[in-house]
Amino acid sequence: MPHLTLDYSSNLTTLDADRTLLALNRQLVESGQFAENDIKSRACRLEHYRIGIEPAPRAFAHVTLALLSGRTPECKQGLSASLLAVLQRAGLTLPGAEVQLSVEVRDMERASYSKAVIGD
Amino acid sequence: MPHLTLDYSSNLTTLDADRTLLALNRQLVESGQFAENDIKSRACRLEHYRIGIEPAPRAFAHVTLALLSGRTPECKQGLSASLLAVLQRAGLTLPGAEVQLSVEVRDMERASYSKAVIGD
Amino acid sequence: MPHLTLDYSSNLTTLDADRTLLALNRQLVESGQFAENDIKSRACRLEHYRIGIEPAPRAFAHVTLALLSGRTPECKQGLSASLLAVLQRAGLTLPGAEVQLSVEVRDMERASYSKAVIGD
């Protein structure tokens, strides 16, 4: 916890997944809400996607941040806005196209979350 | 918003991901619930899957539709049923196998959802 | 229902996705909570991931179990703990690295879940 997932359409060829994940994680560390080594993030490049039904060129990048339940709405809004700002600074453009950036914050049920750490 | 995800087992070799996403998006546009260019859909072909524990040939296709919170149960049931009907019309068969089709509608917390649009 | 997803960082080269999915499914069958052929599981090997911000070698495997709403907290805790135990027995190690294992149990809204079965 937290678990972050970055989904992005494959036409965002300027998106550097590893660099963007690091920038997102830095933002989460700076929030002061999480232990540094607890932040687990992954990026999925989507080969098959569709935005709407028109043939216009379109792209999107979407972050889902899954947190153990219990944080305040204000805290979650702040995290969401700050992650969106990271996406906005990532230089994601597609000439002639609309690029949609979005962030969802999702609660994970605390009572049934299990975790173990191996090694090191 | 909305975000649609289609997961399907890779033995559904007749599934045309791009065509199916377009059909699903058309259905969402027809529902009148969404702006056309807001509908962001992706398909994931699953190379590693397992249905139950028996060696019988089995397949599945599963849609998750994530919506900003606030819609009525009736609205969500209607969207779910209509997307399932799209899957049923997609000609997904696997000779001698059971193919399971399913649709989940999931609320996204509205207060902490963030969005920005770049370009165009 | 249920839908199980196993995400794991690609540095866990000893993880056999098919074998691990079968072990997870066996555990779900043994719980007595589900019809054998209803259990739909998939594994996603993550090529692009980042744990925290430090360069230390780290790995993770994360299971999400999505259930139709209505089960008790105790039932969900039991399922979560038993799936974590499967991960712990899977021999996931990375020399000199910390490997984080986790399980989330997530409710799916029952009223808007749709399903159909084709063939067989």
UniProtKB/TrEMBL annotation, chains A, B, C:
SUPFAM superfamilies: Tautomerase/MIF (SSF55331). Coiled coil: none annotated. InterPro entries: 5-COMe_2-OHmuconate_Isoase, Tautomerase/MIF_sf. GO terms for molecular function: 5-carboxymethyl-2-hydroxymuconate delta-isomerase activity. The keyword Isomerase applies. Keywords: Isomerase. This is 5-carboxymethyl-2-hydroxymuconate isomerase. It comes from Pseudogulbenkiania ferrooxidans 2002. The lineage of its organism: Bacteria, Pseudomonadati, Pseudomonadota, Betaproteobacteria, Neisseriales.
